[in-house]
Amino acid sequence: MKRIAVVGAGTMGRGIAYAAALGGYEVRLFDIRPEALTSARSYIETEMRRSAERGYITPQQADRALLAIHYVSHMEDAAQDADLAIEAVLEQIELKVDVFQKLDKWCPTRAILATNTSTMSPTEIAAATKRPGQVLAMHFFNPVHKMKLVEIIRGLDTSDEAVEAAKDVAKRMGKETVEVNEFPGFVTSRMNCLIGNEAMIMLQEGVASAEDIDQAMKLGLNHPMGPLELADLVGLDTRLRNMEYLHQTLGEKYRPAPILVKYVKAGRLGRKSGKGFYDYTNVDG
Fold first, then answer.
1. Which of 24, 100, 126, 204 could form an SS bridge with 155, CB 3.0 to 4.6 Å?
2. Residues 137/115, Cβ–Cβ less than 8 Å
């Protein structure tokens, strides 16, 4: 594999593009929104330079990776000669199916199509294409350039060859992989959503403050980040969509905490909006 198309230049898409370019791939990062591409370019260039300054990569590696990323505003341009296409759009099944139908039309027949979904069915997504054996999920984690794991999730018809190719790509990106059989939420999202939801319920019950809940999880259970901090980082709207999907597919224990629903309705979406369970209005980044 030489060329990777990334669909969606948001938080996850830009991170995947960054990791792919450092892994030696030519990357085409697509988004329909010009402002998203501009923001992604700025983010990637800043993070690449910071990594070089801190000695994580060499200046030469940074320069090569930056030259390897092309920012495109037409999906067909990103897809036309891709060996692998990775979708990183909102967690909405209708949107993902639409993207995959277009990728199936425009990507070469050899190309593997991957979704970065954290909860949804690669089988359902694959059924919208004419190549279900070449469709799977590659679930990256935020921030992509720091997090080592990629969950590889098979759909019903995913071939062994597609799985091995995805593992090889992740390895070149500097990641480690676990292979997961498809089930709603996979491994990490099911666990994270439950822990985060219980933290939100405890907060609304007045059991402890957000700071103390997070501190207890970090110091008592050795979590690198508290569940409420993590929800703010992921985005509370994204977490709510995940919870609603898991509630629908796995049952009552995944019913979203009322405080999560209320915060999303109020526009308190976490870091990206400046306020969630914490206030980020005076915090850089």
1. 126
2. yes
Structure-token pair, residue 10 = 């948001």
Using the 3D structure, point to which of 166, 181, 196 is the last residue of a domain: 181
183-226 pLDDT per residue, tens: 888 888 899 999 999 999 999 999 999 999 999 999 999 998 99
Number of Cβ within 10 Å of residue 213's Cβ equals 21
Q: At 113, is the secondary structure helix, strand, or coil?
A: strand
Domain boundary among 148, 181, 214: 181
Eight-state DSSP code of residue 256: P
**101, part of any domain:** yes
In this prediction the pTM is 0.83
Cα–Cα distance measured from residue 215 to residue 227, given in angstroms and rounded to the nearest whole number: 10
CB-based contact 33:12 (threshold 8 Å): no
Known binding residues for NAD(+): 8-13, 31, 91, 96, 118, 142, 272
